[in-house]
Specification:
It is built from 4 helices and no strands. It is mainly α and 196 residues long.
Length: 196
């Protein structure tokens, strides 16, 4: 009975190892696919951060505000290609310009005002600009979200590979013990044999 249960434990260990290694491979493939897709989509947009010189004299209400220095200036002059860059551009560049332009009003608030004042062409143009800015911002934040999914999948794949490797090693160790059940004692002639 003991040999039968150890045999099934070995089979379960090998099966678990195979499943974990296969899952790790699929998660790694998924991570790479999402990473490359997001990078290719962002690259196609040809969005660039302002040049380093633009960050030399930040001023409230201008293209570069003081609030952009800690978050946006680190990417000065670079093309927007990563999830982290997309988040910084969306939340610390576009959102700041929209808030400055609208005095903190949201698109829905401005849109309601524009519907109440159909002759106000300046307000209608502002609503149109805010809509475009919020749309671009949401697309960039969506890219950032998928970039995070890619990173989580990568970490999960490493964990799955590690657990699969451990399960495989444990199963191999169990297999070697199964074939070497114990230590045999040699009886030397002339010594009494005791049975325990």
């Amino acid at each position: 009975m003991r040999r039968s249960s150890s045999f099934w434990a070995l089979i379960a260990g090998f099966a678990g190892a195979v499943i974990l290694l296969a899952a790790g491979g699929l998660m790694l493939w998924g991570s790479t696919y999402v990473h490359n897709t997001v990078r290719n989509q962002l690259s196609a947009q040809q969005i660039y951060f302002p040049a380093k010189a633009a960050f030399a004299h930040p001023k409230a209400g201008s293209e570069i505000t003081p609030s952009m220095i800690p978050s946006v200036s680190q990417y000065a002059g670079q093309q927007l290609l990563t999830g982290q860059q997309a988040e910084a551009y969306a939340d610390n560049f576009i959102a700041v310009h929209i808030a400055n332009m609208t005095g903190g009003k949201t698109y829905s608030q401005l849109s309601a005002e524009a519907m109440a004042q159909p002759a106000n062409t300046k307000l209608a143009a502002e609503v149109n600009t805010v809509f475009k800015g919020e749309t671009l911002r949401s697309m960039l934040l969506n890219a950032y979200g998928w970039w995070k999914v890619s990173q989580i999948l990568f970490i999960a794949s490493i964990a799955s590979f590690a657990l699969g490797g451990l399960a495989l090693l444990a199963s191999l160790f169990g297999l070697t013990l199964r074939h070497n059940p114990g230590i045999l004692h040699e009886v030397i002639e002339g010594t009494p044999v005791t049975h325990t």
